[in-house]
UniProtKB/TrEMBL annotation:
Gene name tied to this protein: Kcng3
Keyword Iron-sulfur listed: no
Gene Ontology cellular component list: cytoplasm; voltage-gated potassium channel complex
Main location: membrane
PANTHER family (UniProt xref): POTASSIUM VOLTAGE-GATED CHANNEL SUBFAMILY G MEMBER 3, VOLTAGE-GATED POTASSIUM CHANNEL
UniProt protein name: Voltage-gated potassium channel regulatory subunit KCNG3
Residue stretches spanning the membrane: 167-192, 219-239, 251-273, 293-313, 320-341, 353-373, 385-409
Biological process annotations from GO: action potential; protein homooligomerization; regulation of potassium ion transport
Span list, region Disordered: 126-150
């Protein structure tokens, strides 16, 4: 420490004094306290603490003394827990002040903090939606130049991105959902024998986008749905703030995957001709047409449940990878053992279903997930014992990461519910006005 005198310093936190040597402050676990070691003047000290007594070399912090006592227990013993009968958010505020983060808390307290923050966000969403202060009486009459255009673009963005932001957004979302449902019904019905083209037309001819197929009812419905989705995607791209970020979003990529096959198929018909070798093959076009199933994922824009699922998978990719590693390791072990017990020992009871380790992997995965199709099963006593162990181990391995994934799912649900409630209030205000 380059400021102050004496071999030791005194920290006064809310009336409770703590005495430390100067060398201890240099590597102190609390960032705010360790900053005192590099202070060169009294002005630098007052930027860190609230007051300073030069005579006693005492630094005063106007903070919660009991909370700092629990933080000092973390410095000494390495365990940080909440103060009993103290609000979790208030204690978290003290932690942030002294330079700690939520990850320093013990796991049980981290769960309490996450739950408390989620509840608080949901509560605030019904009381203080963002932008309310700006639209209040103080904000009127002080709009900068170009604010009207920016406000219109923001309104358009909310209309297309947030189904609960306005009445127009709800109408648009309803129409989009109807188009998705109609397109999926037509796609499923087109595979029925009663809906197919006459028998004199081959499968390859049915898969082509010819002039006659476009005039059919299913072709007209498909063209209308594609036109709606294309127009919606173009408008959302135009009104987006960041065009590069718009292209990188997963839902927008899915929109492109669902829309482009139709135009590719039409262009292939136009440029290669209706009777070309590529058209007669028909496989490529059938694959492209079947990619319309991605339209179902478009419903994630309008339902919190699907959004929560996607956000949870994004945040829990480490846990998902860990789960896959567990399954792959267990699959390698049990498939090798089952192949050895059922087929490799050759004790007169050879099971042809377990002729190879890759074939045994199928039995392992359906056993670990407790599906049990029954298409292949062990017939030897050691094989059946191994099958029982495989089932029990599958239940245990699959259950281990579920706690982390569930906790993240609940947190993601609260965050999305908060955002939805925020826009729902603006929708109610608009409806009443």
């Amino acid at each position: 420490m380059n400021f102050g005198r004496g071999p030791s310093v005194v920290l006064n936190v809310g009336g409770t004094r703590y005495s430390f040597s100067r060398e201890v402050l240099k590597d102190f676990p609390l960032r705010r306290v360790s900053r005192l070691h590099g202070c060169l003047s009294e002005q630098d000290v007052l930027e860190v603490c609230d007051d300073y007594d030069r005579e006693r070399n005492e630094y005063f912090f106007d903070r919660h003394s009991e909370a700092f006592g629990f933080i000092m227990l973390y410095v000494r013993h390495g365990h940080l827990r909440f103060v009993p009968h103290m609000c979790e958010l208030s204690f978290y505020n003290e932690m942030i002040y002294w330079g700690l983060e939520g990850s320093h808390l013990d796991y049980c307290c981290q769960r309490r903090l996450d739950d408390r923050m989620s509840e608080t966000y949901t509560y605030y969403s019904a009381e203080e939606p963002p932008g309310e202060a700006a639209s209040g009486p103080e904000g009127k009459g002080r709009r900068p130049p170009g604010a009207e255009g920016g406000k219109w673009l923001e309104r358009m963005r909310r209309t297309f991105e947030e189904p609960t932001s306005s009445v127009a957004a709800q109408v648009l979302a309803t129409v989009s959902i109807l188009f998705v449902i109609v397109s999926m019904v037509v796609l499923c019905a087109s595979t029925l024998p009663e809906w197919r083209a006459p028998e004199n037309r081959s499968m390859e001819e049915q898969s082509r986008y010819t002039a006659e197929s476009v005039r059919e009812p299913s072709g007209i419905i498909e063209a209308i749905c594609i036109g709606w989705f294309t127009a919606e995607c173009i408008v959302r791209f135009i009104v987006s703030k960041n065009k590069c970020e718009f292209v990188r979003r997963p839902l927008n990529i899915i929109d492109l995957l669902a829309i482009t096959p139709y135009y590719i198929s039409v262009l292939m018909t136009v440029f290669t001709g209706e009777n070309s070798q590529l058209q007669r093959a028909g496989v490529t076009l059938r694959v492209l047409r079947m990619m319309r199933i991605f339209w179902v994922i478009k419903l994630a824009r309008h339902f919190i449940g699907l959004q929560t699922l996607g956000l949870t998978l994004k945040r829990c990719y480490r846990e998902m990878v860990m789960l896959l590693v567990f399954i792959c390791v267990a699959m390698a072990i049990f498939s090798a053992l089952s192949q050895l017990l059922e087929n490799g020992l050759d004790l007169g009871t050879k099971n042809k279903d377990y002729a190879s380790i890759p074939a045994a992997c199928w039995w392992v995965i359906i056993s670990m997930t407790t599906v049990g199709y029954g298409d292949m099963c062990p017939i030897t006593v050691p094989g059946r014992i191994l099958g029982g162990i495989c089932v029990v181990s599958g239940i245990v391995l699959l259950a281990l990461p579920i706690t982390f994934i569930y906790h993240s799912f609940v947190q993601c649900y609260h965050e999305l519910k908060f955002r939805s409630a925020r826009y729902s209030r603006s929708l109610s205000a608009e409806f009443l006005n």
